[in-house]
Amino acid sequence: RPAPWLILGQILIQKSELDSAKNLLERASAQFSNNFLVQYYYGSVLDQLDEDDEAVAAYKKSIALNPRDSNAKLFLANIYLQQKKYDEGTSLCNQVIDREPDNLFGILTLASIYDTQKLHVQSESLYKKALQIDPDNAVTLNNFAYNLSVRNDRLEEAKTMVNRAIELDSTNGAYWDTF
Hints:
Elements: H1 3-14, H2 18-31, H3 36-48, H4 52-65, H5 70-82, H6 86-99, H7 104-116, H8 120-133, H9 138-150, H10 155-168, H11 173-178
Helix pairs in contact: 1-2, 1-3, 2-3, 3-4, 3-5, 4-5, 5-6, 5-7, 6-7, 7-8, 8-9, 9-10
């Protein structure tokens, strides 16, 4: 049964004992190779340890075992974003958003992929959609404000958004950087 392995793995991850979590979940991955959650959490710890190639393999295995798993797809999309594999990341995000149109994580991940490619018009439409879903999401407000500011467009609107993000979470240094 994989449940005890998963519980212990999650505890180790929460305690930031990532090397121990990796060792445990690596053994669990071998023993429970057909369990998508084991593969997902193994990918997650590898991702946190910046072992991208191994994390990609684990997330792909998780997705193959459970193609409807949005989280594995979106975490894999984030790795692809870091690796500048934009088409692969975009495809995964679109798969999630097609099935779950209000998946905020999917919308924001896709917006980040577009922003990185300087496709600001496309990302702006996604930020607007995200704000319709959750108007007080500090990450969305900050990222949208940053999107506008790098284009030197609608700066007063950007300032209002980043001020709201700071009101919601004054401890996030990224929001102050945008300001």
